[in-house]
Design brief:
By secondary structure, this protein is α+β, with helices and mostly antiparallel strands. The protein folds into 4 domains: 213 residues, Histidine kinase-like ATPase, C-terminal domain (Heat Shock Protein 90, 2-Layer Sandwich); 163 residues, Ribosomal Protein S5, domain 2; 142 residues, Rossmann fold (3-Layer(aba) Sandwich), CATH 3.40.50; 35 residues. It has 20 helices and 26 strands. Helix 12 packs across helix 18 and helix 19 crosses helix 20. Bound molecules: ligand 28F. The site of ligand 28F has 17 residues, from helix 3, strand 2, helix 4 and strand 9.
Length: 638
């Protein structure tokens, strides 16, 4: 090492050592999520360069050895000596915690993800990292190992005079991370989102680990308008235009794009400086306020709402509305437990005033679209009114007869939810076997008749009137909607048990759609599971084996020998098993396989889309999705 250890250098080493000691403080976690965060940190620096107008393509490659290379065609991190540090600026960027003068005044500090920490943190948490800068005909390079400088910045070659940019390659340290294998889909979702939010930026994602390298290019000239179109791709839009509002209010830049579709769900994705804000905040409330006010004003003025009718609620207007809100704020303040909610009060007014003004103008210019939306909202208002009455009725009824549980439910005797689980079983006959198989103390059985209602295609009033759905809601005990209270959950595990065939998979998906739309907290807090019944039973010399997949069947046959003495039985449904077999293979907590249903919040916007693709009206996106994902279906993990 050719670096002299002055006082500054020692401070730097202490800084990076702190990062290695408490990585969670800097990147949130050392799980798979933290691992991917490293990539976002580096890419975000390149995105900053793009937002400044200096870079138009960012290439991210997952290399064969699980290192990552990020390249941009920006100005290149400065290689000249930084006055204060007495070292090249690029070295400062990678070795000093929170370095980066460009994050000071002027411009917007983009992302840095949840923790806003940057390149030096990635460096500290990598086994090795190499940076190359292309500038003024020269290629500069420096290498670090676990944050330590390996040699002074040096020129390693020439490049064309007009070439410029930065290239960073790093290998995450397995001493730090629990897992070091990158997930292509996770990166894909993230960079698609980044590209939507940064009009004109091209992001190329390559997976070089595969025999045949995979490449995806994300480039959207329409920016967030295209984001809305993408979210609505599996739905029927109510009108062709995408409503778009944009502008500055003081130093806050606001962009909003929206379009209604014929579904009943609201999708609102909001971002601050390109960071997703899953819990919304002041920018989202400013938007909602403007939307409600503007539509009510318009509907009254144009007699689309009678004097005798009450105002449309925000929810009525947002039924079937897909919205992307993206704002840029010089100094964002994030609040809430997970720091995912915008707190800046000036953002509320900025979004409200820009949306109110431009939406009013749009509605005046497009009376037929305005009428379509108002009419849909009035229908939503009526359905909501009917649903509320139905809900009040059940609420009053349950208060009268002391919260009567559905008749079909075979409840467990233990009243401590921590010990209890409920099996939602397709069909009365399988329900019957499950009832005699179960362990009565802790396992409850709720049989459902036939297919449950597809909530993706039904309005609220119809959903609340559905017997199977009512049975589930009362059995779970949590209530729904504004009344939802997870502490009232009567079972620790909700287990969906269906046949191991296409129909069974369809019923599971309908169930998951219902849970995701109406009680997403149950999924997010890890209470929902899929049972996994066996596909085959193999018998030989009075001994029995169960196989849960074709591979498993093959390996069993390999082991016991493939001969005429095995009788192999393929199970077509739960009903073919007697209660003892059902217990042994699928329900016994000691032996069964359960799959936990999870939502990864990094990909939450995709989950919404997935349910719509699977359960919505359009055939083509569904077919594409199933084809694309066929290889994952064995291990479906939504
Ligand atoms: C592969 C990841 O990190 N790209 C970057 C720049 C450009 C500048 C910069 C970055 C200046 C003094 C810190 C260039 N010219 N890609 C990247 N491109 N950082 S990071 O400046 C950093 C500050 O200390 C840059 C003029 N100004 C800024």
């Amino acid at each position: 090492m050719s670096v002299d250890y002055g006082a500054d250098q020692i401070q730097i080493l202490e800084g990076l050592e702190a990062v290695r000691k408490r990585p969670g403080m800097y990147i949130g976690s050392t799980s798979l999520r933290g691992l991917h965060h490293l990539v976002y940190e580096i890419v975000d620096n390149a995105v900053d360069e793009a937002l400044g107008g200096f870079c138009d393509t960012i290439t991210v490659s997952i290399n064969k050895d699980e290192s990552i290379t990020v390249q941009d065609d920006g100005r290149g991190i400065p290689v000249g000596i930084n006055e204060k540090a007495g070292r090249p600026a690029v070295e400062v960027v990678f070795t000093v915690l929170h370095a980066g003068g460009k994050f000071g005044g002027g411009g917007y500090k983009v992302s840095g993800g949840l923790h806003g920490v940057g390149a030096s943190v990635v460096n500290a948490l990598s086994t090795w990292l190499e940076v190359k800068v292309y500038s003024e005909g020269k290629i500069y390079q420096q290498r670090y190992e676990r944050g330590n400088v390996m040699y002074d910045l040096k020129v390693v070659g020439d490049c064309p005079m007009e070439m410029h940019g930065t290239e960073v390659t790093f290998l995450p340290d397995p001493e730090i991370f629990e897992e070091t294998i990158f997930d292509f889909e996770t990166l894909k979702t993230r960079f698609r989102e980044t590209a939507f939010l940064t009009k004109d930026l091209r992001i190329v994602l390559r997976d070089l680990r595969e025999e045949e390298p995979v490449e995806e290019v994300f480039h959207y000239e329409g920016g967030i308008k295209e984001f809305v179109a993408y979210q609505n791709k599996s739905k029927e839009a109510l009108y062709n235009d995408i409503i778009y509002c944009e502008g500055f209010k003081g130093n806050i830049y606001v962009e909003v794009a929206m379009q209604h579709n014929d579904s009943y769900n609201e999708t609102t994705l909001s971002f601050v400086n390109n960071i997703i804000t899953p819990e919304g905040g002041t920018h989202v409330s400013g938007f909602k306020n403007a939307l409600t006010k503007t539509f009510n004003d318009y509907a009254r003025t144009n007699k689309l709402l009678k004097d005798s009718e009450s105002n449309l609620s925000g929810e009525d207007i947002r039924e079937g509305l897909t919205t992307i809100i993206s704002i840029k704020v010089p100094e964002p303040q994030f609040e809430g437990q997970t720091k995912q909610k915008l707190g800046n009060s000036e953002a509320r007014g900025a979004v409200d005033s820009i949306v109110s003004e431009q939406l009013t103008y749009f509605l005046e210019q497009n009376p037929s679209i305005a009428k379509t939306i108002c009419e849909k909202s009035v229908l939503a208002q009526r359905a909501r009114e009917a649903a509320r009455k139905a809900r009040d009725l059940t609420r009053r009824k349950s208060a009268l007869d002391g919260m009567s549980l559905p008749g079909k439910l075979a409840d467990c005797s233990d009243k401590n939810p921590d010990n209890c689980e409920i099996f939602i079983v397709e069909g009365d006959s399988a329900g019957g076997s499950a009832k005699s198989a179960r362990s009565r103390a802790t396992q409850a059985i709720l049989p459902l008749r036939g297919k449950i209602l597809n909530v993706e295609k039904a309005r609220l009033d119809k959903i609340y009137a559905n017997a199977e759905i009512k049975a589930m809601i009362t059995a779970f005990g949590t209530g729904i909607h504004d009344d939802f209270d997870i502490t009232k959950l009567r079972y620790n595990k909700i287990i969906i048990m269906t046949d191991a065939d296409v129909d069974g998979a369809h019923i599971s998906t309908l169930m998951l759609t219902f849970l995701y739309r109406f009680m997403p907290e149950l999924i997010k807090t890890g209470h929902v599971y899929l049972a996994q019944p066996p596909l085959y039973k193999v018998e030989k010399n009075k001994k029995v084996w169960y196989a849960y997949s074709d591979e498993e069947l093959n390996s069993i046959l390999q082991e016991i020998g493939r001969d005429g003495n095995n009788k192999i039985q393929r199970y077509k449904g739960l009903g073919e098993m007697d209660s003892e077999q059902l217990w042994e293979t699928t329900m016994d907590p000691e032996k069964r396989i359960l799959r936990k249903v999870m939502i990864n919040d990094e990909t939450e916007s995709e989950v919404d889309l997935t349910f719509n693709i699977l359960m919505g009206d359009k055939v083509e996106p569904r077919r594409d999705f199933i084809e694309e994902n066929a290889k994952y279906v064995q291990n479906l993990d939504i």
